[in-house]
Design a protein that fits this description.
heterodimer, A: 267 residues, mainly alpha, B: 321 residues, alpha/beta, Rossmann fold, Alpha-Beta Plaits, 6-stranded mixed sheet, 4-stranded antiparallel sheet, 11 helices, 29% strand
Chain lengths: 267, 321
């Protein structure tokens, strides 16, 4: 009897994607309606604490930066970073619970929905949270008088891109994670340095030249630049490059989480 | 959803192999599952049953051999196959934050069905699995048996041509297990083709029309449960719990009663004598009076077949966590 060898190689990887990923997003949204209050609170309080302590407290001793008070300077940066945290929590701990504890991925991929669509649905949900939480904080900033340009209406677009990038990065980590403990490294070694050195608390121009180049490799740096430009109405000269950099991140990071999750689940 | 091919074979596996970390967990198995039957994969944990069903629904790529499901190629057309499958996997993978009804609705959507269009069917399935009164309860609050029943109701939403049940009663208490068997028999009545994996011989006996016995990735035997029992061990088994020198007694007894025995097996101190004349054997045994803790004459089961074929018990000390 003849035997065929069926090869599976990452080089032959073809994503199996249709609009079915929207159903996975819908599932996540439905679950979210059960706990949104507590989740929103947590993500909202933190940037407000930073804003109060650093912007109001520390800011009293700091001269104006780029023509802005310290409070005005850090507010858009905190807006940007809050979307990073919200998305990253969702697509690490949230996704890992679905993957490893609730086995939701396993359940869904017994139906015509593909694993690629499940991963994409989770990434879309991460981006949704970025837009939702970012918009709520933007609204509060508006009420606090920290928004000085109608260009701020474009901020949700930046949040979409930032949400996609951090969702994809987090999903890569999740697809490789053996346990919950490993996520602490992701937050401490990757996200916290980004939070501190992406130009939220001081302009990256104050850093040594090498560090400034390094900042361009950090998606949060671009989000901060764009948010600050749009909120203050003073877009930086290279804002189009910031936008292109975010788009490039989204494209480059598109396949790795799909591929890695397949390697984990389809064996 | 009866438009598919009307051929008799629902699954055809030929020399199916699955390598995993350099080891063949499924090692060249061939079998057919026919329309309308309940086909069992019976074997201990690690026999390759779950891997086999995962290949059927496309979650485990095939290393070698051929696998056709509903006339479609299991490797490349797996999405098309899954449209017509219902799968109840071994793990509990319901959405704990959602209600019973929401779980049903979401699953309908995964199959591209609009819950509003098939609300009547969803209600009927909950009825069938005795879950109607819990429709709006959160899954977290359900008992183990109810969760399992919901997983089965969920797997029937798309009116599947093939229902895969992977260890459907593992982890349930005996009462919940018996209730579930009853409901699975009702589903069987509807002539849905079922592929069942189990390590419970009682489950296999009660539900399967035909089965294969698997061990270490290979198929040892195939047939109807009762025919397998008749072929390998005969209708009855006499169990003797021997007090001293069991091997010597095995030799002595099998020699003396060769005319009554179809075979024997010694496991520890327990000697199993397979026979078609149990009462006569018991009578004649009185004369020899082997020193026994106990003796037990009972009907032979698939467990005895498995013991004879593999030399080990199927579900030793059947205790579930």
């Amino acid at each position: 009897m003849s035997r065929h060898k069926i090869k599976s190689s990452p080089l032959l990887f073809r994503p199996e994607i249709s609009s079915r990923f929207l159903v996975v997003l819908q599932r996540n949204l439905l679950v979210y309606t059960k706990y949104w209050r507590s989740s929103m609170m947590f993500n909202f309080v933190e940037p407000m604490l930073y804003l109060a302590a650093l912007g109001v407290g520390l800011g009293a001793y700091i001269p104006r930066i780029e023509g802005m008070s310290y409070l005005e300077f850090i507010a858009p940066g905190l807006l940007a970073s809050s979307t990073m945290w919200a998305t990253s929590f969702e697509c690490t701990y949230g996704s890992f619970i679905r993957l490893q504890v609730q086995k939701s991925y396993h359940a869904i991929i017994t139906t015509p929905v593909s694993l690629d669509e499940v991963v994409l649905g989770d990434i879309a949900f991460g981006a949704f949270k970025s837009i939702l939480y970012g918009s709520v904080i933007l609204l509060v900033f508006l009420l606090l008088g920290l928004v000085s340009s109608p260009l701020a209406l474009f901020v949700p677009l930046v949040m979409l891109l930032s949400g996609l990038v951090f969702a994809q990065l987090s999903m890569i980590w999740t697809s490789l994670a053996p346990n919950f403990e490993i996520f602490a490294y992701y937050f401490t070694l990757l996200l916290t340095p980004m939070f501190l050195f992406s130009g939220i608390f001081f302009p990256v121009e104050t850093l040594p030249l090498m560090a400034r180049y390094l900042a361009w490799l950090m998606p949060l740096f671009h989000t901060v630049q764009l948010c600050r430009g749009l909120v203050s109405g003073q877009l930086p000269a290279g804002f189009i490059f910031n936008l292109l950099a975010l788009l490039l991140f989204v494209l480059v990071l598109f396949l790795p989480p799909l591929l890695l999750m397949r390697r984990r689940l389809i064996q | 959803m009866q438009e598919g091919p009307v051929s008799r074979e629902i699954i055809v596996a030929r020399d199916l192999v699955k390598h995993y970390n350099g080891r063949a967990v499924v090692d060249g198995i061939s079998f057919q599952v026919y329309r309308g039957e309940c086909f069992g994969l019976l074997g201990p944990n690690g026999a390759g049953k779950t891997t086999t069903v995962k290949m059927v629904y496309g979650l485990s790529p095939i290393s070698a051999g051929e696998l056709t499901v509903l006339g479609l190629h299991a490797g490349s057309q797996s999405r098309e196959i899954r449209k017509h499958l219902g799968v109840v996997s071994q793990d509990n993978n319901l959405d704990p934050d959602l209600t019973v009804w929401e779980n049903m609705e979401m699953f309908a959507r995964y199959y591209g069905l609009r819950p509003a269009h098939i609300a009547a069917r969803l209600r009927q399935l909950l009825d069938l699995m005795d879950l109607s009164s819990a429709a709006h309860a959160r899954v977290e609050t359900l008992s183990g048996g109810m969760k399992r029943r919901l997983a089965i109701a969920r797997s029937l939403i798309n009116n599947p041509q093939l229902l895969i049940l992977d260890e459907p009663t593992t982890g349930l208490d005996p009462q919940a297990r018996h209730l579930l068997w009853q409901q699975l028999r009702e589903i069987k009545e509807q002539k849905i083709t079922i592929l069942l994996t189990t390590h419970y011989l009682e489950e296999a006996t009660k539900l399967c029309d035909r089965l294969v016995i698997m061990d270490r990735g290979r198929i040892l035997e195939e047939g109807e449960p009762s025919a397998l029992v008749a072929k390998h061990v005969g209708p009855q088994v006499l169990e003797l719990g021997l007090k001293e020198d069991p091997p010597a007694w095995q030799e002595a007894l099998t020699g003396r009663f060769a005319h009554l025995l179809k075979g024997s097996w010694l496991l520890g101190d327990t000697l199993y004598l397979y026979t078609d004349g149990g009462n006569r054997l018991l009578q004649e045994l009185q004369e020899l009076a082997p020193p026994c803790h106990y003796h037990l004459l009972r009907a032979a089961t698939l467990e005895d077949v498995f013991l004879k074929l593999t030399g080990k018990e199927l579900a030793p000390a059947d205790v579930e966590a």
